[in-house]
């Protein structure tokens, strides 16, 4: 399982994708309704969402808090 931190981008991949019909309408609605700023952002969000649903990734929302807590634990262990 991979862990994904929304605050860090490790590597970018460029991809050209064409959408027609319902997928196109959903993508445009995500931007129009303000769920995403761009179509690319909406697609990234959708991929992360399905990755979570299929247990391929686990989202880490509190990375900074986790890192701080880990450092404090290490300090106290010395």
Describe the model.
This protein is mostly helical and 78 residues long. It has one domain. Strands 1-2 form a two-stranded parallel sheet. The two termini are 31 Å apart.
Largest sheet, in brief, is:
2 strands, parallel
Rg, rounded, reads: 17 Å
| Total number of strands | 2
- Order of strands, main sheet, comes to 1-2
**Order of secondary-structure elements:** EHHEH
User: Whole-number average pLDDT?
Assistant: 82
How many distinct domains? 1
Discrete helix count: 3
Distance between the termini: 31 Å
Helix-strand category:
mainly alpha
Poorly predicted parts: none
The general outline is elongated
Portion of residues in beta strands equals 5-15%
Secondary structure: helix percent: 40-55%
In short:
This protein has 78 residues and is mainly α. It has helices spanning 21-32, 39-53, 63-76, and strands spanning 2-4, 57-59.
Give the key terms.
elongated; 78 residues; mainly alpha; two-stranded parallel ribbon; 3 helices; single chain
